[in-house]
Every structure is written in structure tokens, then in C-alpha cells.
Amino acid sequence: MVAAVALPLILACAGQQPGDGANANAPEFSGDSAFAHVRTQVEFGPRYPGSPGHAAQLAWMDEYLRARADTVVLQQFTHETVEGETLALTNVFARFRPDLGTRVLLLAHWDTRPRADNEMDADLRNEPIDGANDGASGTAVLLEMADVLFRHSPPIGVDLLFVDGEDWSAMDLLIGSEYFAANLPAGYRPLYGILLDMVGDANPVYKVEQHSQDYAPEVVERVWLQAEDLGLGGIFSRQRTGYIEDDHVPLNRAGIRTIDIIDFDYGPGNAYWHTTQDRIENTSPKGLDAVGKVVTALIYRGG
Questions:
Q1: In whole angstroms, what separates CA 149 from the centre of its chain?
Q2: Rounded CA gap, 234 and 276, in Å?
Q3: Distance CA 256, CA 49 (A)
């Protein structure tokens, strides 16, 4: 059944394959410029829903994207948490060449964790996190990608989705992607989607996430082959990681074949995840640059 569903995507993308020389046409992606976007986000402070940093980042992203994208849609909605709190949330949907039917979806979450619930120090567990990696890194790659797409018109349509409410709590998570999946634009069927999450580790290794392999193995193969073609096989590992419940899952359930590029080993033994150690000094441009170059090459060879 997977092979039968995957066939249209394989045929649609068969004109150009990794290693065929098409990457020479891809514009440069700057990991350093993307890292500057990480810094800007962290300077807003914690960016969980309802915080001043959340409002400041939304205004900044909206202005930045409207100066570059063909269209920008703010998908505003509310969510009631299991504890009875009402969150005001906003997904940001920026579209490049919306007239084209052949398109891909890139997404990341832009909110941050309101509580450092994995802290060893119990006194710090109610502190919000900076989210330099978990939140800012994937968003930074997409923002830099917006600039690339603005300066170099892509051969296919590209949609950038910034989802909100991914990281509120263990019981209220993936809120923005669930909402988007339930409220897709009419007839929306991109070739595939790529989620970028926690891509800013100073020592990045992106293993194959198991939901991605189960739902969209052909997309995994295209991305990892592209990475190898660019000499980035040491960062895009063929090793498997486990099932990670992330924003790609609701999209796959809605029929958009989406994979997750994620390094779920942040700090020794993933010790920085959901802690106050998720700071800019524990990130670097290296992973941003690698992911950005792979995705750019895919887009400019036509998907």
C-alpha cells in the first residue's frame, strides 16, 4: 500500500535525481545568516503563547515574511488546555509561487516551552526556556529560506508553515499542526512535507525518524540521498531513531507525506532538551547550514 501511494510522488520527481548535476543551479544558503535569526528570536525572550516574546516574534515574522513571500496568511485560533486555560495561537503560512500546482511544504514550530520540566534542579522546572534549538532553529532555517526564495524564484511552489503551540505541555502539544491539518487550504496537496525541529545542535546528527520511515519512506530516501550527494552523509545518518511524536504526524494523517529532520540528542544524553540549557551558546550554524543546503538543493532541482 505504501508503494502504491508513493508512486505519484516518485513519478512527479523523476525528472531530476540527486547526483544528476541539477544542484549546480541551487542558490547559496547561509547557515550564518540563519544563525542570526536564532539570535534575534532568543533576544525576544521566551516565546510561549501569552508571553511578551511570543507577541514580539509574531509581529517580527509577519513583517519579515510579508516583505518576501507572495502571500502570507495568519491562521489565528484558540485552544483550551487540559487545565482549562485558553491559549491564543497563530500559525503563519507563507507562500511562494502560489500559482503553481507542483509544490512542497516546509514547516517548523516557532513557540517555546513555558516550563523547563526536564531540569534536574527542581527549583528551575517552572522556568521558561530560551528555545534556541527547540523552536528557534527550525524557524531560523525557514526564515533564511524565505530570503533565498525571494531573491531566486524557485522552479516549483514552496510553502513555509510556522506552527504555534507545539510545545505547551506533555498533554497539550502539536496544537498548531493539528489545527492546520484539520483546516487545509481547499484542494491542498503538496508533493511532500519536511519538518525541521531541533536542527541547531553544535554537533548535529540527523538520524532517520521512524514515523517518517513508516509514513513517507520515499521522501526520506530523497532527502538523505540529496544530503549524501552534497557530501553531508556524516550529518544525515542512515541510522534509525525511534518514533518521535512531532508536527509531521498530524500532517501525515491528513494525507500530506511528511518527514521529520530532527536531532533528538541535544547535549550529553539529550540533557539540554526542555531545560534552561537550551541556550544559544549550546547551538551553532553548522546544522542550520547543512539542513538549509539540502532543502535548497531539493527545491531548485524541482522537488
A1: 16
A2: 29
A3: 27
- Max CA separation in the chain (angstroms): 57
Whole-number Å distance between alpha carbons of 105 and 85: 31
Residue 96 · residue 104 · CB < 8 Å: no
In a 10 Å sphere around its CB, with 0-12 CB exposed, 13-18 middle and 19+ buried, how is residue 44 labelled? Answer: buried
Question: How high is the pLDDT of residue 25?
Answer: 83
8-state DSSP, 121: S
For residues 195 and 108, the answer to whether their CB atoms sit within 8 Å is yes
Strand partners, 103: 157
What confidence score (pLDDT) does residue 188 get?
97
Q: Is residue 278 within 8 Å of residue 77, measured between CB atoms?
A: no
Region for residue 57 given its phi and psi (left: phi exceeds 0; alpha: psi -120 to 50; beta: otherwise): alpha
**Cβ-contact 294, 230 below 8 angstroms:** yes
Residues in the chain: 303
Between β-strands 86-96 and 71-80, what pairing exists: parallel, antiparallel or unpaired?
antiparallel
What Rg, from alpha-carbon coordinates, does the chain have? 18
CA angle 264, 275, 146 (to 5 degrees): 60
Band (76; pLDDT cuts 50, 70, 90)? very high
Pairing of strands 193-197, 206-208: unpaired
Can you state the percent helix, strand and coil of the chain, rounding each to 5? 40, 20, 45
Beta 236-240 vs 206-208: how paired, if at all? parallel
pLDDT in tens, 225-276: 999 999 999 999 999 999 999 999 999 999 999 999 999 999 999 999 999 9
Q: How far apart are CA 50 and CA 97, in angstroms?
A: 33
C-alpha cell of 283?
547551538
pLDDT, tens digit, for every residue of 133-160?
Answer: 999 999 999 999 999 999 999 999 999 9
Tell me, what amino acid is at 142? L
